[in-house]
Amino acid sequence: MTLLQDILSPEIKLVQEDLGLDNSRFKYSTPIEFINELKALNDLQRYPFFFINSMLVDYDLQSKNDKIINVGEIVIATKSLPGWSSEERDAKSFKPILIPFLERFLERLTFNKNLSVLKEGKIKLHYFYGKQGLYGGDGNIFNDSVDAIQLLNFQFRLSNNKQCKK
Question: Is the pLDDT of residue 145 over 90?
């Protein structure tokens, strides 16, 4: 079985290269595992990041050729400062980093022969996401201030596009 992270990891690397974000991270894991990993890194190694909450991913294996993957939460985030106004967040986080990352990610999937967006869910822009963390205010000890885009309840189609032999 092909795993979602095996397809998305190289796509995210291409997005990172396209946007010149060589220090960004991709992670498919539980929120607690990811938070613990982030705490062990310095600021330059942490952000921006693309995180898939593995606890909210399920595969529908009913079809032989296509699999439906339901993804409950994806977070794209970058470091911010608590005192920034919404205008500063737009100018320093959302417009130069987060929105281009999201747009390029979705665009990359239109060219992927194995994975496509079947159904877009909700997209939430979080100004100052840091105190809530990735799993709610009481669920972790994520201390950094970040601005984030959260993708909720997306569905992907994983196709078995094997080339025909001549």
Answer: no
CA dihedral sign, ordered 6, 39, 58, 151? negative
Phi-psi region of 28 (alpha: psi -120 to 50; beta: other; left: phi over 0): beta
| Angstrom distances, CA of residue 43 to CA of 64, 106, 115, 146 | 44, 26, 32, 11
pLDDT attached to residue 164: 38
Taking the C-alpha atoms of residue 157 and residue 132, their distance in angstroms, rounded to an integer, is 31
Digit-coded pLDDT (tens) for 34-90: 888 887 877 667 788 899 999 999 998 766 777 899 999 999 998 888 788 999 999
Domain boundaries, the chain: 4-159
136 — alpha (psi -120 to 50), left (phi > 0) or beta? Answer: left
Kindly report the number of other CB atoms within 10 A of residue 55's CB atom: 13
DSSP for 6-38, please give it. HHHHHHHHHHHHHHT-TT-EEEEE-HHHHHHHH
Stated pTM of the model:
0.85
